[in-house]
Amino acid sequence: MKLIINIPHLKLQGGVSSHYKGLEPFWSVSKDYNVIGKRYGLPGIVFLPYDYLKFILLCLFGGYTHVLLNPSLGKNAIKRDAVFLKIAKLFQKKVVVFFHGWSPDMVKKINNQPNAFLSAYNKADKFIVLAKSIKSDLVKWGISKPIELSTTKINEELLEDFMWQAKSNKTFQLLFLSRIETYKGIYEALKTYQILKAQYPNCSLTIAGDGSQLDDVKSYAKAHLQEVSFLGHVSNDKLKSAFKNADVYLLPSYSEGMPTTVLEAMAFGLPIVSRPVGGLVDFFENDKMGYLVESLEPQDFADKIALIINNDTKLNAIAQYNHNYAKQHFMASKVVKQLEKKIANV
């Protein structure tokens, strides 16, 4: 097998580029990354004719047997990658489509008219998805090719020199680490903390990330809350510190594929309080890993977190379980081996 993988520019922030940056040291098969889409500060449409021409030449002269496409389910991405798929099959390549982001709005549109999607994408030899719910959507639309589950990954270097140790804290820090957007549940997180702070004065909240709602969130926190810290975008040592200093990871997200930050938080021994979205529901064990809350009511999140606050035995039992589970299932070196097998077996 000689594999070509279409990816965004690795210097871009985003789940797909982060995923393959983390997998890069661990591939055992012959593979090349083919950068497509926006780069150098210019939108992807500027490079589209060049990207298609370059891909044709790679298929003609590169000696590749397999192609891995990595779209998200967004209008532009699925149209763009439908052409890459068509080109690859024209040159008789085995094609695997790995869907990452999954837009609920796009799902509704395809539900109403699945024929165009089916006609374009059922040409692939296999699909890889991050959640059983995504697989169900593809099957409903008429996809008849094999569909297998995968996961995002934890970068190995993130856990370098980290040794899990039991905590016995007089303070209790909640961590929200994600894009600061409404759909990530940032306002539910703020109101959850507001409820908890009134009952548990030893609570604090750390918010890491940036996004369109950051200024509004800062204003709300200044007016209504105490002991809220803003770290901005974090990476490398700052990312490690954010996880190490926290006691619970809170993500009341409206929708997800497979949120890498949840896997990372687990690896650092944090109980998770989130929602049953995306691939989380496929492995998450309520009470053993934390809690997935069905509703978006802040009181419901606060009630679950209250089960852990000031209960060192409960906190440490969940923390140790999460740390061990994440190291066993989500490290990049293990994820890439599974991915190679899925691609080769088409």
Task: Please explain how this structure is put together.
The chain has 13 helices and 12 strands. The protein starts with a strand and ends with a helix. The mean pLDDT is 95. The chain is an alpha/beta fold. α7 (186-199) crosses α11. Keywords: Glycosyltransferase, Transferase. It comes from Winogradskyella marincola. This is Glycosyltransferase family 4 protein.
> Which CATH class of the largest domain?
Alpha Beta
CATH superfamily of the largest domain: Glycogen Phosphorylase B
Approximate strand percentage = 15-25%
Measured between the Cα atoms of the first and last residue, the distance is 11 Å
Low-confidence stretches: none
Helix content: 40-55%
The tally of helices reads: 13
> Might you state the CATH topology name of the largest domain?
Rossmann fold
| Basic shape | elongated
* Largest sheet data: 6 strands, parallel
Rg value: 21 Å
Strand order of the largest sheet: 2-1-3-4-5-6
Number of domains: 2
Report the average pLDDT across residues.
Answer: 95
- The name of the CATH architecture of the largest domain is 3-Layer(aba) Sandwich
List the secondary-structure elements in sequence, H or E: EHEHEHEHHEHEEHEHEHEHEEHHH
Number of β-strand runs: 12
Class derived from helix and strand content: alpha/beta
Protein name: Glycosyltransferase family 4 protein
Domain Glycosyl transferase family: 167-322
EC number: 2.4.-.-
InterPro entries: Glyco_trans_1 (IPR001296), Glycosyltransferase_grp1 (IPR050194)
Descriptive key words:
six-stranded parallel sheet; Rossmann fold; alpha/beta; 346 residues; 2 domains
